[in-house]
Amino acid sequence: MPLRKMFVRQMICLLLTAACLLTAAAQRPRTGIRPQTNDRRVQTGIAFYDVDKIYDTLPALFYDDEEYTPEGRRHWDTERYRRKIRNTAAVIDSMALEIVALWGVENEAVVRDLVAACRGDYTYIHRTLNTLDGMDFALLYYGDRFFPHYVEPGRRYLYIEGTLGRDTVGLVLCAENRMAEWVVRDLREERPSARLVVLGRSATMEPARYGLHDATARAERAGRGTIHSRGRWTMRDRILVDTCLETVAADVFARRFLIDPRSGSPLATFKGRVYCGGYGYSLPVFVYIR
């Protein structure tokens, strides 16, 4: 065989091999903590993250946020605000999940800044809850995976119902334990076709009573938790999943960059009123369902 033809064939083989490798890389899951499984059914990662009060720097009209202004006791200026946005976006990017529920954002402007800082192509839902401290929920999600069609805000909760795969899934975001049970009880009567996922404060609920199971219970039994106090971890934020949905994996999202090596606690933004510039006093929790 002439050397020219042999060279051409070798080049074609190399190009085909490179194309196959690039195609395979493009098809890799975009979630950095996705569990390994041989089941080809689509898995969806959902997280809940208490972001530890992301205020903008502007004084509010209807509640007192004076501490979180440049002239306030916390000296909350543009530099500190931008660092908080970058830190929070870094945590969300590290999880790389399809749906991320947030508690502790002041307004939609904060959510927009946060979404812009994330590498993931998130769409968002935000509702003003008219709380005394100005704190709201937000939901970041991939618009090609979750399709919301109903949103209901309330006192310290936000309910978002949408289509996920073939299921109608209702996400219940709660910031109070008692409120979680009241909301779930009503939803079971009013929207019985929705498969519920409860995210946030729900420690006083009996999940089995409402057709749920605590996906974070195993991590709690292993000694993990979302906040660290007096030398021990506590699972303050939980994820309860409808028994009609399959839970593939669930845990606390704990990474070395989030933890203070001296105290073993999450690197907080403030300790008391002392600025530390960390990520927040709470760790996220996540679950994979299908």
Please characterize this protein's 3D structure.
The protein is of the alpha+beta class. Helix 2 crosses helix 3 (108-117). The protein is globular. It has five helices and 16 strands.
Short description:
The protein has 290 residues and is α+β, with helices and mostly antiparallel strands. It has 5 helices and 16 strands.
Provide the fold topology.
Blueprint: H1 3-26, E1 44-54, H2 78-95, E2 99-105, H3 108-117, E3 123-127, E4 136-141, E5 146-154, E6 157-164, E7 167-174, H4 177-190, E8 195-200, E9 212-214, H5 217-221, E10 227-229, E11 232-234, E12 238-242, E13 247-252, E14 270-271, E15 274-275, E16 285-289
Parallel strand pairs: 1-2, 7-8
Antiparallel strand pairs: 1-16, 2-4, 3-4, 5-6, 6-7, 8-12, 9-12, 10-11, 13-16, 14-15
Helix pairs in contact: 2-3
**Topology pattern, helix = H, strand = E:** HEHEHEEEEEHEEHEEEEEEE
Shape, principal axes of CA atoms: globular
Report the mean per-residue pLDDT as an integer: 89
Instruction: Tell me what portion of residues adopts beta-strand conformation.
Output: 25-35%
Distance between the termini: 55 Å
- DSSP summary, beta strand count: 16
Across the major sheet, the strand order is 3-4-2-1-16-13
Largest sheet: 6 strands, mixed
How does the helix and strand content classify structurally?
alpha+beta
Instruction: Give unreliable regions as ranges.
Output: 1-8, 11-31
Number of helices: 5
Helix content: 10-25%
CA gyration radius, whole angstroms: 22 Å
